[in-house]
Amino acid sequence: MTFSVSSSSPQRESQKDKPSRTTRPRYSAFMSDDLATAAEWIRDAKAIVVVTGAGVSAESTIPTFRDAMEGLWAEFDPQTLATPEAFAADPEMVTRWYDMRRVKCAQAVPNAGHLALADIEKHVSSRGGTMTLLTQNVDGLHTAAGSKNVVELHGSLRVWRCTKTGQEVTPGPEPFEEFPPMSEAGAPLRPSVVWFGEMLSEGALETAFAASGSCDLFMSVGTSAVVYPAAGFVELAKRAGARTFEVNKDQTPTSGIVDLTFRGRSGEILPELVTRAFG
Ligand code: OAD
Questions:
Q1: Catalytic residue numbers?
Q2: pTM, entire model
Q3: Please, what are the domains in the chain?
Q4: How many helices (DSSP H) and strands (DSSP E) are in the chain?
């Protein structure tokens, strides 16, 4: 299956919904009730599926996918750069962009949101349950935070592969010296991420569909929910009767589908849920 972007863009909400910059967020009484409910769902769940997107890494200083076009890159559309066609037309430009992001990711550390998700998995597993973390992120921060059952739907930016032999390499944290970087076989290297129009790994997809269609709790965290197939897993979970909630700074197409939605930063809301669920 290839992946694609839906034509509708998510609607951005205004600044007024940003949580205050205190060490612990102040939640309205209404939100607090919902937090208590979601915490109870987490405590009761036997099979949790979480879909994450770039928002979960924003507090690790990695710009989100659609905010990543800063400075020299401001004039480019990320959806145009993240394609096999762009790489074929200008491998130097595309690999420079991915290398800039690769180096940023290598310097980043997991934030409180990543750690909270790893904590939830630990608690659920210790009770004999399962948690499957389906991430669209290519930064490796969920694994660095201690999450075990992670499915990297869009591949990994840490790994690059030879366009001739398919051999994979994991470069060090320094930027490449030439663009495109060349493999030992003398062919350009490309990042091992899934570009628009490319196939997702069959194994990753099978796991994602099976887990979403049989979970009892589904969480969508920090994703604009416009890229399929990841954006469709919530409906699958709903049809299977799962409880569903979203954590996002902004409104997304998923907001109207889930049972509960928490508007704020995942690095604040997820730890609060863990505290309420497990003390
Ligand atoms: P986007 O950049 O599209 O969306 C990030 C989402 O996170 C937005 O909805 C933001 O409002 C939200 N957000 C930002 N900061 C947040 C925070 N601190 N807490 C909670 N939410 C926050 O990124 P994705 O949805 O991940 O794939 O994009 C999906 C895929 O599109 C990417 O994986 C990328 C592209 O195709 C590849 O390049 C392979």
A1: 154
A2: 0.89
A3: 27-62+111-154+200-279 (3.40.50.1220), 64-107+159-193 (3.30.1600.10)
A4: 9, 11
